Each structure stands twice: as C-alpha cells, then as structure tokens.
Amino acid sequence: MSTVVIVGGGITGLLTAVHCARDGHRVTVVERGPLPNPESSSFDQHRVLRAPAPGSGPELHQHWLRLQTLLGGRFYRRVGVVTGWPADRIGAAVRAARQAGVRLRVEAPDTLPHIVFPAGYVGVRELDAGVLLADRVLRAAVRWLRNQPGVMLRSGCEVSGVDTAAARVVLADGKVLAGDTVLVAAGIHTRELVPVPTVLYRQTVAYVHPPADLRTWWEHAPSVGAAGTDGRRWLVPPGDGTLLKLSSSALCRVVGTPHESTEPDRAAAHDCRESVLAQPHRYPIAALKHCHYTTDPRTGAGALDQLGPAVWARAATGGDGFRTAPLIAERIAAVVRPGLAA
C-alpha cells in the first residue's frame, strides 16, 4: 500500500484519487477552497465529451460510462456531438474515424434547423459522445471519496510549496505532507507551485435561455462544433437543469493573468449568438463566464510532467482537460501500483 498526496480538488485530482483509492492506496486530497470548489477551472454546468481527436477511438466514452456506474448519479448525457465539415472533405474524415472504431453518422445541416452552419458544410455526428454535467461529476466524486476509509479530503487547505526531490507538500501553516507519490493538479495555480512552463488562456462563454417553445427540441439536441457563419462557433445544449452554452475559438485568447480586463471578451461573447443561432434575438443571455486554463508552450496542448522521482504535475491541461482527466488519472494510478514503472 502506497501513500498518494494530491494537490488540487478539480477533475484531475479527484479522479486520480478515485483510481488510487480503488487500488487500495492511502490518498490525501488537498484543496485551497471547498470540495468541490465552485472557483476551480473544472466547475461548470457542462463540458463536451467526444474522442480527443479524429480517429482516436471510443476509449473516453467507455471510461466515462464506467465512472458514472462507479460514482453513482446521472452526469453523462449521451446526446452525441455534431461537427461541421466542408462537404468536399467529409469522406476522408469519416473513413479515418470509422477505421479507429468511432461510430459516426453524416447529417445534413437542415436536421438541426435552429443552428447555423457555414455554406457548403455538412454535419458529422459522433454517436458515442455527448455532454458531461461537470459540477455533478465533481460532487459525485467527492461523495464517493468521502465514503472510502483510506481517503482524507482536506478542504480550505493552502499549499505554499512542493519539494519535488523529496515528494513533500508544504502547507501554508508549516505542516508537511509526505507521499510515495505526489500529483500537483491545482488548475491554473499549479504553475505557482512547481517549475513547469505554461501559457494562460481565457475562454469566454455565454449562457442563454432557449425559447420556451423550443426547449424540448434543445434538450434532445447534440453538442455542436465548427458551426456559425465562420465555422468557429460551438455550443452545448441545455438539459437536466442546465442552460444553452455558446462560445467560439475567437473567444479564446492568451492573457498574462486571470485579472486582465474582460471588457473585450464580453462584447465579443454577445456577438457570438448572432452567428450561430437562427433567430438569435429569441435567446436572451443569462450570464457570461470567463474560464481560464493553461497549455504547454511546446505543444499548445495539455501535458503530464514528471518533476522528480515521485512527483508529477498536471500544470498544462489544454482545452480538453476535463474530458481527458480519466486518462491522466489512470496513468498516475498505474505509476503508483506496485511493480509498475512510470
């Protein structure tokens, strides 16, 4: 039996704790706020679940189905994901995905009459995909972990530093937590604790109310990407008490700190719905949210870095950090298991 210390109670930290606890290890999760923390990068109404890249296979879908069964509750809405593609490129994309085992269906844009696509585009629906109710995932993981005898959840606990050579976590009150394995996964604050280069991004999203007469249609709609008149917009459908969420790749930009002015992002977010929704005036904006995440400057994506013999960091999450968290959790759990090397 090993001791695992996890800094950060977001999706990566919590799912890693779940995997390690299932393997019988002692696990301590340290989180600066409550658990789950509404201020964390992971906390949101919903996130899209699909294969990480075209042709990558159905593994994530199966991971999340197993987690839903283990943790209990209903947090995976299997409504599918539709991506817009130029009609002249659709054949190659579909063949590559199907060879990798991804189940697809080609759809004409008029099957989604309330969503705007660029001229000449068709839709590709990924069937084994959909929407994760993100805040419910976090709550389910916390609830499950609280019932495990070898798990300690320490909320409201500030970390001041990490000794990567000795696998020790130093708390703000001077106490030290030592682990056989340490994972630092504190969202955008990870880079304050360990020496990993990152680039900080801000993604602004708009939450809107669908018209009352279309609410049932929207609740059965898929998530949609590469939409809008410019092919850069995406949306996540409402359902199970959530709102319709809209954004665009144009609403994602590099920032120096999370505290930079949000005024340019707010104006652009209001414009987003005009491009992607038919009859946009019928969709009042309920709220705007400015989300932050970090990427690896070497790749522009997420990364899992080994910083010492037994210390790992998920400082760079990329834009798909939530949906791929089960893969990171399994990788750390495999390192901790006796007889398995990193």
Mean pLDDT: 93
Helix content: 10-25%
Give the SSE string: EHEEHEEHEEEHEEEEEHEHEEEEHEEEH
- The radius of gyration computed from the alpha-carbon positions, rounded to a whole number of angstroms, is 20 Å
Q: How large a portion of the residues is in β-strands, by DSSP E?
A: 25-35%
Helical segment count: 8
How far from one another are the termini? 17 Å
Description of the molecule:
The protein has 342 residues and is of the alpha+beta class. It contains eight helices and 21 strands. Strands 5, 6, 7, 14, 15, 16, 17, 18 and 19 form a nine-stranded mixed β-sheet that branches. Strand 11 and strand 12 (176-178) form a beta hairpin. Helix 1 packs parallel to helix 4 (134-146) and helix 1 (11-22) crosses helix 8 (325-336). The longest helix is centred in the C-terminal third of the chain and has 14 residues, at 263-276. The radius of gyration is 20 Å and the shape is globular.
